[in-house]
Structures are given as C-alpha cells and as structure tokens.
Design brief:
This protein has 735 residues and is of the alpha+beta class. It contains 21 helices and 27 strands. Strands 15, 16, 17, 18, 19, 20, 21, 22, 23, 24, 25, 26 and 27 form a 13-stranded antiparallel beta sheet that branches. The radius of gyration is 28 Å and the shape is globular.
C-alpha cells in the first residue's frame, strides 16, 4: 500500500482595484462561481481559499449569493479562508504601519463576515523579505505560503521541502509552507492522474509528506483556454474524482489541520525574493535578455540540476527603478500614507475622525499591487489600473484637506523631495487642482490632479523596450490577430491588432508636460514624432527655482541658463495658481539672450492621460469650438490661439490657450505590451505640442503666456443629478 501524504490545495482569487466591471463579472461566471458549484459536489475535498479584499467587496455588492455559499462551505469545514493585506499590496511597497493596518483590518473583516477564525494569510505575489515575518506574526497570523523557490534560495534541496518550517523575526514566530512549482505546472494543464502520480512518488519516498499547491484561482476558467479545459472538458470533475478515489492514501487537507497535527521540518530564514518569473521581470530589459540567454546556455550542463538553485535574478523593489512611472505612484502613495499618519497622531477632532478613516481606506485601496509592476500581464501598462490608484490617492488627499479644516477657495505651495530622488520638487495645490513640478528634470509638470474627477491627467507612460518586443518582431506577419485571442500554450503568438511590429517606438524624454523643446526651424511633425530635430539642452536640463506665495496666489518660478547650439540662452517659466480661478494653471515663458535675427523654433509639450482615444465622445476642438477629430487624431494645425480636449465620459474639458498664436501638433502615445489575451496596442496619452517659429527681436527676448484650464461642470451636474435621485422619496404606486 502506498504510504500516506497530505495535499493542500490553495487558491488565490483576485481582481485589482479599477478593473472593469465586465472583467469582474466574467471572472465570476467563468471561474469563481463554477468552481464552488463543483466543489460543493465533493464534500470530502477541502480547499484553502484566499479572496482579495477588492474582489470580496465587489462580490458582496454584486453577488451576495457567492458570499453565502462560501460561508456555508466554511461552516462545514470544507473551506479554510486565508487573510492577508486587505487590498492586495506588495508588502515591500508599503510602510510597515500600513502592512499591519491592512492585515489586521482584513483579518477582522473576514472573521466577522464568515464567522470563522483566520489563522493564515496569502502573501501577495509571494514577494518576501524576512522582516515581514515579524509583521505578519504581530498581525495575529500563524502561518503563510511561499514558493519552493524561496526555500531553494536558502540552500534547501527539493527533498527537504515536503512540509513547513518555522521562521522568526525579533522573536516573533511564523510557520511557512513551501508551495510546489511542479504542482503549479501540473494543475490544471496536465491530466489529473499526472498529479496523482506525482503525489504517489513523493509518498513512496517520504511517508507523511506535506505537498501544497498555491496559485491563482483564475487558472480555473479565466486564463486563456482554461474555461473549456476545466469545465467543458471536465478536467476539474476528473481531478476531484481522482482525489476521491485515492483518499485512502492521499489526504486532501487544509493548512490549519496540518499545523495542528504535523510538526515543522525545522527552522529557516528565507532570502528576499518572489516567484521565479517575477525575479526575471524585475531585471532591466537588457539584463533580462542576457539572463535568459545565460540560463538557456547553462541548462546544457550535466550538473545544472545542482547549480540552478544558486542562480538568482532580480529584486521586486527595482520595478520602481525600471519604471519611473511606478515610482511616481509609489512616492505619491507614501506622501498620502504619511499625511494619514500625521492626521491620526495626537488629539484628533472627533468630527475629523470619520474623514481620516475614510482617507485611510482610500489609501489602502490605492496600494493594490497590480499597476506598480509589469510581468506576463498588463499591470503597469494598463491605464485604467493606474488611474484607479491615482483616483484613490486624490480622494484620500481631498479628505485629509477637509479633515484639516480647509474649505472654500484656497491655494498653497511647498517644496520637498516628493518623488524620493534626493532633490526637491514643487507642489502647487488648491481646492480644485494639485500640480507637481520637477525643477531637476526639465522643470516638467509631472502630476496634475483634477480633484472634481479624481484624476491625474499626467498618469502617462513612456514607450520603452521590453524583452518580448523581439518576439513580436520575430513573428511579424506570422501570428494571428484574432480579437480576444490569447498566447498559445504551444508557443504560438496572438496579436490583438495587426502590424504591431510597426508600432514599436521608444521615447527619449519623459512624456510629461511643460517639456521645453528648441527645434530645427521648419522641422516637420513627422520628424518630431520620430525624435529628430531637437536642439539645446533644455528638455531634461536642471532648472533653478523659487517660490512666491500669498493667500490668493502661489507661483513657482523656474529658470535655466543653457545652450541653444553655441549660444548661451536663458529660459524662465513661471507656473501660477490663483485661489479665485483655481481650475486654471497660468504658465508664462520668457526666453532671453537670444541672438537677434536668429530664426527660432520653440515648442512646449503637454501630455494628457486618462482620456482614451478613439471614441467619438473624446475629441479635440479648435479656437472657434469646431471639432478637430477624436483624441487619436494626428493634427498639424495652422496658427491658432486655443486647442481643447473633451472627454464627455470623464466629464472634463481641458483648454490650452496661448497669448501668441501657435501651430499645434498632436499625436497619440501608444505602447505595445503583453497581456493574458495576447500582444496589444494601448493608448497611454495624447501629446499636444504648441510650437512657434519666429525671428528673434532686437532685444533678444520673446514671451508667451499659456493658460491650461479645466471645466468639470458636466461631472458636477451628473453628481448632483445622481444625488437627487438617491434622495428622491419612493413613489406610492397605490395613488
């Protein structure tokens, strides 16, 4: 008779903050609901289930029957629930106070919702640093699950991973299970009996071993091809049946039962890391390619099976270096977290407490990990996920201003190291707008928050090389481009749009606003689009700065003495925000020391994110209100004094006015990225570039005033209408 073995099946179900409602619904219908329905037929098969807080909130509102079903399975002992940080942040990406706050809050929430004791937790993306052990234990959690990769990196052999270990930090103990990579690849893609045979081979060599599978629940219906495999073709039913047939020796169980009945294998301290693929994605693009080439070469070694556990790739936190836009979100989140902490300290006005707690909850939501990095799926490349993070941060920021007693019309300005680069940035804030300037990086406007729509219109993303771009080039003209197709598990490639190889283009400067360009006279839009024709050293040069403030107006004055070819010239730009007109940024440019009579071509680049291109309710308009086309239109206008951008769905009308008539270039900034459904083209921002060509006057000076204003009255009207409907008394149908 085969010796017994324990098998723990752990599923992690998650949808990020900001994902489309249709995606939530499809995942529910294709995966979450049918899995539990089938599980209900096999009461002898227990599972360990983790549901992220963002998904749980949606399920509670939209499908309370799912909550009831989980509650019933928990009550009969078939489901063990895992906790974790409430809104699925990478633990390394948030302050310790928020780690503890999120873990404790979700533990309480689960215990109250499902009438159960929560003892374990899911570590988001299995990103681990040893200091987390103490935080997790302090949050009241006894055990967690990581990948076997973590344990191999600590020097353990595969034969030493059939169970769990004790670890500690500052004397606080935590039990850590080693999830099996082999099981992750078998389930659900191999025949169920391959999993049974794998378990049998372990049981025969290591009686009473503990094996644990831990992976995304979306593998069971959401991942490409999995719905047909798992449900239509009956994989899951055959798997549960196989478990039932082999229960004499294969004990499917839970983490809680295991720690109560099985002793730990020993003590371990785990090095920083995450699952294997994540460590590769965190590497810079060029190094990632070199790493994979090195691995392919080393796999031919006769002793590779002994060497490979000592070969490690990157570190999660370097996503914040690889993608500056991720660092911008992270830095903004850290600011809000610090403000929440400060608002909570000491004696707090009781009237402010609800506002602070609501701000804390919005902060926690903004810490959801998905848009802070990029791997096999879209992540950072998906604008709606980045926009959701900023929406929550802006909401929290506004709540904190209210808690601090700010009301009516107000403005403020301050300088600090807001983006954690050891240099000071400038923050202009008011009751309607918040703007961040980076004097050390071209004096760029790198964040612009419109409070009324809770949107950062500079949540842009640069186009940059990715390792999979080579694969796109290699398969140009060969891969299918059927809508909604996925990456074929057999190695085929799906393009969601045709000719993606021709859309690969990379930016050489940040796609922000107030990006200053001196250009070759007569330069065409096409040449500029291709990155040609730039002159001078102002685009990313360091600007000096000083601040001016009064109760009614704040100004940031930035200047740079640089070079236009051989000529030393000076550029000064002043950015102002008035309390009385808090929906407008006033920008004044003064160019000095220009050689008299010299032909000059000067441009100021603006980018507008969060305003999708293509739909007819998102469009440009000219100085007379005439439509100039949808927001993906490539314009090259005659000189005019105004261009506007409207997003009727978002409820924003952004107008850019120039005191000197300007020609306007516009172009969509589109990235090519990979997603679970194939390679795709994604609109990131609309670039709008007013440019002027002139002969330098005798005094060597030239001036222009730009006004960037935002009308959100459509949004406010919608909110008032919705509020009126929600407060309307119910109609008495008997009258």
């Amino acid at each position: 008779m085969t010796a017994s073995v324990r098998l723990i099946l752990t599923l992690h179900n998650h949808q990020p903050i900001g994902n489309f409602d249709g995606v939530f619904e499809a995942a529910y219908c294709d995966s979450y609901a049918p899995f539990l329905e089938l599980l209900d037929e096999f009461p002898e098969v227990p599972v360990v289930l983790h549901i992220s807080g963002s998904l749980l909130e949606w399920l509670t509102e939209r499908h309370p029957e799912y909550i009831d079903r989980v509650r019933g399975l928990v009550a009969r002992g078939q489901v063990e629930l895992l906790g974790g940080p409430f809104y699925e942040p990478i633990l390394a990406s948030i302050p310790r106070r928020d780690r503890l706050g999120q873990m404790k809050a979700y533990k309480r929430h689960l215990e109250q919702t499902f009438a159960t004791r929560v003892r374990g937790m899911w570590v988001p993306e299995r990103v681990w640093e040893q200091s987390f052990a103490g935080d997790i234990a302090e949050a009241g959690i006894e055990y967690t699950l990581l990948d076997d990769t973590h344990f191999r990196n600590a020097g353990l052999h595969d034969d030493e991973l059939h169970g769990y270990y004790l670890t500690e930090e500052s004397g606080r103990l935590l039990k850590v299970f080693a999830g099996g990579e082999r099981l992750r690849y078998l389930i659900p893609y191999a025949d169920p009996y391959e999993t049974i045979n794998h378990c049998r081979s372990i049981a025969e060599r290591f009686p009473n071993a503990v094996l644990i599978f831990g992976d995304d629940g979306e593998k069971f219906g959401v991942w490409p091809g999995s719905k047909d495999l798992v449900y239509r073709d009956g994989w899951l039913r055959r798997f549960f049946t196989a478990l039932r047939e082999n229960r004499e020796w294969l004990n499917v169980t839970t983490m809680s039962e295991t720690v109560d009945r099985v002793s730990p294998l020993g003590r371990i301290y785990l090095p920083d890391g995450s699952y294997r693929e994540m460590t590769e994605w965190a590497l810079p693009t060029e190094r990632q390619t070199h790493f994979r080439e090195m691995i392919r070469g080393q796999e031919q070694r006769h002793d590779w099976h002994r060497v490979k556990q000592f070969v490690r790739a990157g570190f999660w936190r370097n996503f914040l270096v690889k993608y500056p836009e991720a660092n911008e979100m992270y830095s903004r989140m850290m600011q809000v977290s610090q403000r929440v902490e400060e608002a909570s300290a000491g004696e707090v006005d009781p009237r402010a407490l609800p506002l602070i707690e609501e701000a804390r909850r919005e902060l926690y939501r903004a810490q959801c990990n998905c848009p802070y990095w990029h791997g096999a799926f879209g992540g950072l490349y998906l604008p709606h996920l980045r926009n959701a993070v900023y929406s929550k941060l802006i909401a929290a920021d506004t709540l904190l201003e209210e808690a601090a007693g700010r009301s009516g019309r107000w403005v403020d300005i301050k300088a600090d190291d807001f983006n954690l680069d050891a240099r000071k940035e400038i923050r202009l804030a008011g009751d309607r707008l918040v703007a961040y300037l980076a004097p050390s990086k071209g004096g760029h406007l790198y964040e612009l928050d419109v409070r009324a729509v809770r949107t950062n219109l500079l949540a842009t993303l640069n186009r940059r090389p990715e390792p999979y771009h080579d694969r796109i080039r290699q398969h140009a003209g060969q891969a299918s481009h059927e809508g909604g197709g996925g990456v074929d598990p057999n190695g085929g490639v799906r393009f969601k749009q045709p000719d993606l190889d021709q859309k690969l283009q990379y930016d050489t400067w940040p796609r922000k606003s107030l990006v200053d360009h001196f250009l070759q006279p007569g330069l065409s839009r096409e040449a500029f689009v291709n990155g040609h024709g730039g002159l001078g050293d102002f685009t990313e040069g360091v600007y000096q700065s000083k601040l001016r403030r009064s109760d009614e107006r704040v100004e940031a004055c930035l200047w740079r003495d640089g070079y236009l070819g051989p000529y030393p010239v000076k550029v000064t730009k002043t950015v102002a925000l008035d309390a009385g007109d808090g929906s407008t940024l006033d920008v004044t440019y003064l160019l000095e020391n220009l050689p008299a009579g010299l032909p000059i071509h000067f441009a100021v680049e603006f980018n507008f994110a969060a305003m999708p291109a293509g739909p007819h309710d998102r469009y440009f308009y000219g100085e007379h209100g005439q439509s100039l086309g949808t927001l993906d239109t490539r314009l090259d206008t005659e000189p005019m004094s105004r261009i506007g951008l409207v997003d009727e769905w978002l409820g924003v009308d952004a107008a850019l006015d120039s005191s000197e008539p300007a020609s306007f270039w516009t172009m969509p900034i589109q990235t090519v990225s990979q997603s679970e459904s194939g390679f795709e083209l994604v609109h990131q921002s609309c670039a709008v570039i007013p440019h002027w060509q002139f002969q330098v006057p005798n005094d060597g000076c030239w001036r222009v005033r730009l006004s960037l204003s935002f009308d959100t009255s459509a949004t406010q009207a919608r909110e008032l209408a919705a509020r009126a409907i929600s407060h309307r008394a119910p109609v008495d149908a008997t009258r």
